[in-house]
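Q: Please design a sequence for this.
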């Protein structure tokens, strides 16, 4: 079993590493001190299991777990935290288990056994879905890049355009593809983005004005857009109403 340990406390990482060293069939392939480095480590090493702290700087453990849910192959996640108040959120993020620090050897063994069962396909994930918990929208989108990844801050995204099974993220530093549906992104980030077409969501603060082209079609002019974007007829009325309140 290949394991990544992610915790911002060196002593916590050392304890887990020591406990795992006693198990012949477990290999620690990487360690990380925050969620961002944990995601990079998982993209590089493709672990079977991530032992993940929740309270970490930057991208915390819960958000990291939501990104890991889209990885292929998807690693199992076991949270290791000093607080038991996050248990519900952890299982909503589809964790296999939830360990409270200091982690006891017998509880770690039980979690490892659950991970083996998960990996063998004999049970489904706890939680039963990949939707983000209410009020828990991510701060970044995650684009996979040939064994690596790029984390895109949500505040840098100008608009999202669906194309076949991918969504193109147009952001402050360029464009990237992500394998998520436009509908799931709208559900998660509906307060930040507005739909202007069946295949396009635009950041509300990016819309400068609506105008008609020479053929009478409505277009949205963006603050950072190279060219206006088409607005479908069914979205025009709702979009005009939205703009009144910006």
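A: Design:
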């Amino acid at each position: 079993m290949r394991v990544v340990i992610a915790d911002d406390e060196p002593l916590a990482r050392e304890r887990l590493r020591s406990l795992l060293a006693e198990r012949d069939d477990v290999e620690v392939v990487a360690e990380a001190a925050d969620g961002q480095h944990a995601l990079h480590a998982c993209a590089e090493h493709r672990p079977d299991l991530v032992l993940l702290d929740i309270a970490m700087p930057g991208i915390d453990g819960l958000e990291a777990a939501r990104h890991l849910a889209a990885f292929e192959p998807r690693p199992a996640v076991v949270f290791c935290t000093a607080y038991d108040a996050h248990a519900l959120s952890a299982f909503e993020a589809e964790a296999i288990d939830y360990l409270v620090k200091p982690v006891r050897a017998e509880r770690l063994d039980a979690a490892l056994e659950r991970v083996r069962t998960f990996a063998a396909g004999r049970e489904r994930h706890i939680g039963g879905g990949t939707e983000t918990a209410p009020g828990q929208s991510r701060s970044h989108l995650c684009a996979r890049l040939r064994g690596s990844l790029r984390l895109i801050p949500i505040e840098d995204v100008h608009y999202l355009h669906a194309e076949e099974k991918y969504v193109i993220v147009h952001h402050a530093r360029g464009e990237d593809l992500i394998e998520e549906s436009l509908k799931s992104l709208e559900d998660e980030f509906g307060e930040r983005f507005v739909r202007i077409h069946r295949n396009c969501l635009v950041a509300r603060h990016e819309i400068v004005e609506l105008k008609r082209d020479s053929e009478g079609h409505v277009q949205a002019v963006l603050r950072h857009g190279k060219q206006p974007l088409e607005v479908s007829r069914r979205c025009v009325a709702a979009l005009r109403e939205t703009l009144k309140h910006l």
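Q: Thanks. Anything notable?
A: The radius of gyration is 21 Å. The first helix runs from residue 10 to 21.
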